[in-house]
Amino acid sequence: MLSGLLIVLLPLLLGYLVPVRNEMVMATINRGVSASIYLILALMGVSLAGLPDLSSQLSRLGTQALTLFLVISACNIAALWWLSSRLQLALGEPRVVRGAPTSKLAAMAGSLTLVGVVFLGMVAGIGLGTIWDATLFELAESLSEWVLYLLLALIGCQLRNSGMPLRQILLNRHGLVIAVTLALSSLAGGLLAAPLLDLNWNEGLAMASGFGWYSLSGILIGDHLGPLLGGVAFFNDLTRELLAFILIPLVIRRHAPLAIGYGGATSMDFTLPVIQQHGGVACVPIAVVSGFLLSLLSPPLTLFLLSLSV
Description:
- The chain is mostly helical.
- 78% of the residues lie in helices and 0% in strands.
- α2 crosses α9 (214-225).
């Protein structure tokens, strides 16, 4: 599995080495990231359709995803709440941000769309599986790996061209502390949840290492532990994003590190407009740094933990 770590890291690093100065090219890369995410999630739905005794497996998936989410979120909120009492951030005035969602429902619409994509993939898998049988599910798993490599390369390119130099990221103490707190508390939650989910300790840690990056965690866990646990990892991280959209406006004025940190890797993209809208421009570099570091940490850490023998 250590060779798998290199295979996954290589496209991310190669993408990071590519400077992009043309806005049209960057826009195409951004659209490619979105399309890759939708395709990966649809293929995940197809893989889930191949599970034997699907209805009982889906019930188990929901129970395990909820358990994992509650344990990890409790650890995250406790740790980030403590950090908020120690780390005081100067916030700007709330402002209207162009393109930002105007309501919680609008903010969550994109996340709920992702659930719909998985569901449609599952429906397609059930329908086509009667024709192609097991061949379809093997093809879906193989194709999802190649789409993941493309996604990682494009995300590496996005990170390189995010407009924030690596030196500036590493010197942002607040973003670094928030990212470390979120990562450590997530791992603690994964370790606590492992026996509840009947997993080995390293598998529990790996399940918690997505840090909100649902498209990555779902496919990496699914490749190594099967589509059921891949679905658990996906819904755990996606539910984090849904809760973040609700939590950020409620707590950011008093507990900014909690609001910024809870979004995990999504703090640099999906939840960033909500953070800026309610916390002001001063929160943006902190959120970007925190999300950036968690995005870099998640793939190698997940694969390293899965590679450990028990």
